[in-house]
Amino acid sequence: MAVLWLDEIGADDLESVGGKAASLGELTAAGLPVPPGFVVTAGTYRRFIEETGIDEELFEAVDVDAEDSKALAEAESRAKELILETDLPEGLREEMLGTYAEIGDGEAFVAVRSSATAEDLPDASFAGQQETFLNVTADDLVDRIKRCWASLFTQRATYYRQEQGFAHDKVDIAVVVQQMVAAEKSGVMFTSHPSTGEPKIIIEAAWGLGEGVVSGSVTPDNYVIDRTTGEVTDVEVADKKTMYDKDAETGETGERPVPEEKRTEQVLSEAEIDRLCELGEEVEDHYDTPQDVEWAIFEGEVYMLQSRPITTISEGEGSAATADGSGTAVEEGGEALLSGLGASPGIASGAVRTVDKLDQLDKVGEGDIIVTEMTTPDMVPAMKRAAGIITDEGGMTSHAAIVARELGAPAVVGTGTGSEVLEDDQVVTIDGDKGTIREGRQAEEETEPVEEAKPKTPVKPMTATEVKVNVSIPEAAERAAATGADGVGLLRIEHMILSTNKTPTRYIEDHGERAYIEEIIDGVRTVADEFYPRPVRTRTLDSPTDEFRQLEGGDDEPVEHNPMLGYRGIRRSLDTPGVFKHELEAFRQLFEMGYDNVEIMFPLVNDAEDVMRAKALMEEVGIDPQKRRWGVMIETPAAALGVEEMAQQGIDFASFGTNDLTQYTLAVDRNNENVADRFDELHPSVLELISQTIETCREYGVDTSICGQAGSKPRMVRHLVNEGATSISANIDAVRDVQHEVKRIEQKLILDSVR
Ligand code: PEP
Ligand code: MG
User: Of 659, 662, 690, 705, which is best to mutate to test ligand 1, by the most ligand atoms within 8 angstroms of its C-beta?
Assistant: First the structure.
């Protein structure tokens, strides 16, 4: 038989039908609702090349020098030409089309996908043999099947086979032809928690086809279901701006805006959630291991499109506090007094201490809750004593949010009126996940399990994409290093300076240049020691003038109408080279002391001119840019679009500062709560700038990374791993989840390419 129906095959047929088809066959046989389809077996491909006699010429054409890219390209096009232009043996076309005619009404749209066979697994995982053709009908079915066959000889596939010493003539390929589900809703489902393995089903759902959810470009709703009780414990309805569907006229699948009225509508009904959970239980039972399922809903029916094991669950982990908001015990504490943004996870209870002036900081004792309009760097010692932090102002990237996360102190920011509504000595409980503040103290036993469950020595999955950590206060270095991160992706030095409560100029006036340089060396060294030999990417000063104005010497700072667009980052450094050179001198001395793990990063550059000037100053103080690793932050659209010229200046890395990149791409002040709902790091334009930058950097061998807050968000992580970023830097509390998420996506990329 040239073709086999999916319900005729199973795991034992891996060799002849490939991984993807075997898995679909398994699901079909288990009675799960899989769209109907068939597989063109690997033997059929073999029969095609042998019976038509093209095999010899084909294998000769692809036997080329793997290092010769021109020869590889020619091999690919010759193989494709041979396969596409050679007619199928007698009867084969009729058998394929005849089988297709039995699907649906005989005019069904089908998806045609390659399904790599077992022998090819080791190299196929990298070889890009993952041809997928959507919306195929009888007219182009045979051509698409042949194109899947030809995908055996893409340049990458040939290269890897040559490199690995695999013979081209021993590799076969099967092709799956399956009815397409014109999904009205779709998404993914984890049958157990993907990091901790807890008995929770997690469903992500969006409008239209699943491409957007899987690739991370669409923000889906998130549902958490407790498997032991069947109860839906958490629903987060996202603002779903875009969706994928098929254009009625062209038949092309593409991204489109979601109609206004559906943007914030909940995607799944209760009945649909129940049905998905039922299927989740069945599929996990069937495989006897937690599964990551792709599903779709069409005309009320739930279909399963794919299922693969979740490989990221850490052995022996209990119920840790998780990013899906599972630490829910505080819910029982009654109505929330106030709410804001959950900026640093965890739950803390304590007595309120409202502070607005420096001299009030002494009143904050161990275990108190600081309540303030906005924290400032000089509050850090008091923040360390506090059990939790509440602010009136600020977003997820504000000083309070960043420092609280690094200290591991739960925080709720942007409450609007916290410092007016709450009174000294009032006892409250804050929930840094949910962003709520409740009256009274939470019972001990309710808080403890959450804290205790945090693993002391995290199980770190091996990932190809490095996962690093952001550090802003040197005191957090030990905690940061204990996450097992692959280095520091962003060390902000402004906190080292601002914590002196003096502007750089005032500090130098009062204490001298030497002391200023020492201040920087001490801070960076604390972190570099803790991480050695892991790299510590240290950023030169980047404080807006409004932050400086609060410090001693701040009166001399310019008053700016919009500090975010003003005198900060590299533009200020280049304008005041005297002060900037002290920072560079600190780096030079660190290198001299042997801290070869320190890297230099320049903030807010716009173009190659900025880079050239910064590089010249490095050289002036005696740092050899050829010997040290240095790079830039990509924080403006100009920088993203001009990265090629910067690469030509010799940068080693480019790191996305998405807090600023989002602010400048969308014209949304990151500190302005009136437009906070428009601050969207996953906006298609931001993602596009990121994708383009990664592509250009790859051509120049420049590493890419992210160090903005969005690096801690699963959907941004997905986008970056899919696009091939070199590393991701996350907040301390998010490192573990990001490590697991990266592992999961990498695993999926590999599995997808072999199925
Ligand atoms: C950013 O802009 O994303 C970034 C990491 O820098 P900062 O938040 O310090 O401006
Ligand atoms: Mg920035």
Answer: 659
State whether 201 and 174 are in the same domain.
no
Which CATH number belongs to the domain containing residue 600 in this structure? 3.20.20.60
Mean pLDDT of all residues belonging to the chain: 87
Q: Are residues 473 and 617 in the same domain?
A: yes
- Answer yes or no: are the C-beta atoms of 180 and 150 closer than 8 Å: no
- Is residue 707 part of the annotated active site? The answer reads yes
22 versus 456: which is more confidently predicted?
A: 22
Give the pLDDT confidence of 197-245 residue by residue, as tens digits: 789 999 989 999 887 776 556 778 889 999 999 999 989 888 888 888 8
Contact 460, 697 (CB under 8 A): no
Q: Using an 8 Å Cβ cutoff, are 715 and 216 in contact?
A: yes
pTM summary value: 0.60
CATH of residue 20's domain is 3.30.1490.20
Q: Which residue has the tokens 């109609």?
A: 259
Residue 573: partners with Cβ closer than 8 Å, 6 or more residues away: 540, 541, 579, 580, 583, 602, 614
399 is catalytic: yes
Ligand 1 geometric centre to CA of 262 (Å):
33
**Other CB atoms closer than 10 Å to residue 745's CB: what's the count?**
22
Task: For residue range 456-485, list pLDDT tens digits in order.
Answer: 334 566 788 999 999 999 989 998 998 889
Q: Give me the catalytic one of 277, 707, 719, 740.
A: 707
* Type of residue at 208: G
Q: Classify the phi-psi angles of 414: left when phi > 0, otherwise alpha if psi is within -120 to 50, otherwise beta.
A: left
Burial 273-307 (b: 16+ CB within 10 A, else e): bebbbebbebbbebbeebbbbbbbbeeeebbbbbb
**Residue 155: per-residue pLDDT:** 77
CB distance 397 to 708 below 8 Å: yes
In a domain, 480, yes or no: yes
Same domain, 105 and 209: no
pLDDT band at 68 (very low <50, low <70, confident <90, very high): confident
How far CA 306 is from CA of 36, 250, 278, 295, in Å, comes to: 13, 27, 16, 7
CB of residue 433 inside a 6 A radius of ligand 1: no
Q: What domain range includes position 570?
A: 466-754
Q: Are residues 619 and 739 in the same domain?
A: yes
Average pLDDT over residues 70-78: 88
| 214 in Cβ contact with 294 (< 8 Å) | yes
The string of pLDDT tens digits covering residues 628-674 is: 999 999 999 999 999 999 999 999 999 999 999 999 999 999 988 88
571-583, pLDDT tens digit by residue? Answer: 999 999 999 999 9
Evaluate whether 693 touches 704 at the Cβ level (below 8 Å). Answer: yes
CB-side exposure of 483: number of CA atoms within 13 Å?
28
